[in-house]
Design brief:
Bound molecules: ligand MV4
Number of strands: 20
Shape: globular
Number of domains: 3
Oligomer: single chain
Distance between the termini: 56 Å
């Protein structure tokens, strides 16, 4: 097992990793930017090192400074958390070269899954269902037109190097192709230095359902069931839950088996997530995320597994003690992301938190690095807390989430707590009628003008 882990992150996930390390008896090194000197991850880690000024690219994204900090503190491993360098093949490669264990997959696996069209090809070859479309990148608009005619409109063009919705174009007729292809390719080239596009049949109103997987370095891979993450806005998830209200036991088993098959095909040996689009009772591979995710706690709740500890143990080469048959679902769990933002306009609301009271009581977990007096910096993302509840049923979770949101007091900045409260009362939400279009409808009805 590792003696000391450097945490290349900040905020609630840095704290979450510190809690896991403490329970495993591993020393921790926090890194921080100038403006994060008073942060809780700095206070609770055994050691701390300043790695640069506030802008991320000069601190939390600065590979040279992070590696220097790991060398100076003599850390055996680096946990990247989510965001920042968590899916950077370069960072994983430099860690490997410096004999520091990167807690995640190899640089090659990160790069393979980071190329969305190559990832899709790999998964399809492994027998994972994929959306009908091009086999790899499409060379030009003429070939795209030929393929679109074959699969039928609407189709979607996606950036091979993209993900998270950047460089996507939906096309409803051939007349749009020439322009859409040029624009999407130029957008991808400037954002990712790679203009490659691939094409798929467009699904109008799918659900986003993702499978948690966990592998070790001894060839074992299991899945920990699904999370439904259909409540999103501009590709930012807002509410996640497990299990999904859409899946039968049979579909759940099928998706789990497929996720394991896909992970085994790339010799996956850490925590990861396989994202699917789900429509009309069928599911299709979309992307694989090679990091621990923001929404991992809902899986921890229903599967009774500490995913961060498991991820660290797997990186240290330990054999997984669970087998698939040990993984069951205990009740239901739901997470609301509490963001420092205007609840109507979704614009960031940085500033000093003057009052902070987090809810508690039965079945409530709050993952946060905020406190009264904490300054929410405009330099980083706006997530200030994750409110996670559990209960016997989905209805219990909704009831519990409402009472927890009602007793969550954050003053000094604006938050989206009022939005979450309204969603908990939404008829479609309560009925489990979800899709990636949910927020479009919700906002058109609740946010007119
Ligand atoms: C799609 C799709 C419909 N059909 N692909 C959005 C993010 C990127 N990872 C892929 N995305 C989508 N791909 C096909 N063939 C709809 C989306 C999509 C979406 C997916 C998941 C969650 C929210 C979404 C919101 C809009 C569009």
């Amino acid at each position: 097992m590792f003696r000391k882990i450097l945490i290349a992150n900040r905020g609630e996930i840095a704290l979450r990793i510190i809690w896991a390390c403490k329970e495993l008896g591993i020393r921790t090194v926090a890194v921080h930017s100038d403006v994060d000197a008073d942060s809780l991850h700095v206070r609770f880690a055994d050691e701390n090192i300043c790695i640069g000024p506030a802008p991320s690219r000069l601190s939390y994204l600065n590979i040279t400074n992070l590696i220097s900090a790991a060398e100076i503190s003599n850390a055996d491993a680096i946990h990247p958390g989510y965001g920042f360098l968590s899916e950077s093949p370069d960072f994983a490669r430099v860690c490997e070269a410096c004999n520091i264990t990167f807690i995640g997959p190899s640089a090659e696996t990160i790069a393979l899954m980071g190329n969305k069209s190559e990832a899709k090809r790999t998964m399809r070859a492994a027998g994972v269902p994929t959306i009908p479309g091009s086999d790899g990148p499409v060379p030009d608009p003429d070939e795209a037109k030929r393929l679109a005619a074959e699969f039928g409109y609407p189709v979607i063009l996606k950036a091979s190097a993209g993900g998270g919705g950047k460089g996507m174009r939906v096309l409803r007729s051939e007349s749009e192709m020439e322009m859409a292809f040029q624009m999407a390719s130029a957008e991808a080239a400037s954002a990712f230095s790679n203009g490659d596009l691939y094409l798929e049949k467009y699904l109008e109103s799918p659900r986003h359902i993702e499978l948690q997987v966990l592998g070790d370095k001894h060839g074992n891979v299991i899945h920990l069931n699904e999370r439904e993450c259909s409540i999103q806005r501009r590709h930012q998830k807002l509410i996640e839950e497990s299990p999904s209200p859409a899946l039968s036991e049979l579909l759940r088993k099928e998706m789990g088996e497929v996720a394991v098959k896909g992970s085994e095909a790339v010799k996956y040996a850490t925590a990861g997530t396989i994202e699917f689009l789900f429509e009309d009772g069928r599911f299709y591979f979309m992307e694989m995320n090679t990091r621990i995710q923001v929404e991992h706690p809902v899986t921890e709740n229903v599967c009774n597994v500490d995913l961060v500890k498991a991820q660290i143990m797997a990186a240290a080469g330990e054999k997984m003690t669970w087998r698939q048959k040990d993984i069951k679902i205990f009740g239901h769990s739901m997470e609301c992301r509490v963001n420092a933002e205007d609840p109507l306009r979704f614009t960031p609301s940085p500033g000093r938190i003057t009052t902070f009271h987090a809810p508690g009581g039965p079945g409530v977990r709050v993952d946060t690095a905020a406190y009264a007096g904490y300054f929410v910096s405009p330099h980083y993302d706006s997530l200030i807390a994750k409110l996670i509840v559990r209960g016997p049923t989905r209805a219990d979770c909704i009831m519990r989430m409402k009472r927890a949101l009602e007793s969550f007091i954050v003053e000094g900045i604006k938050t989206n707590i009022p939005m979450h409260l309204k969603i908990m009362d939404d008829e479609d939400f309560k009925a489990g009628n979800l899709s990636t279009r949910f927020m479009d409808r919700y906002l058109s009805e609740n946010n007119a003008g």
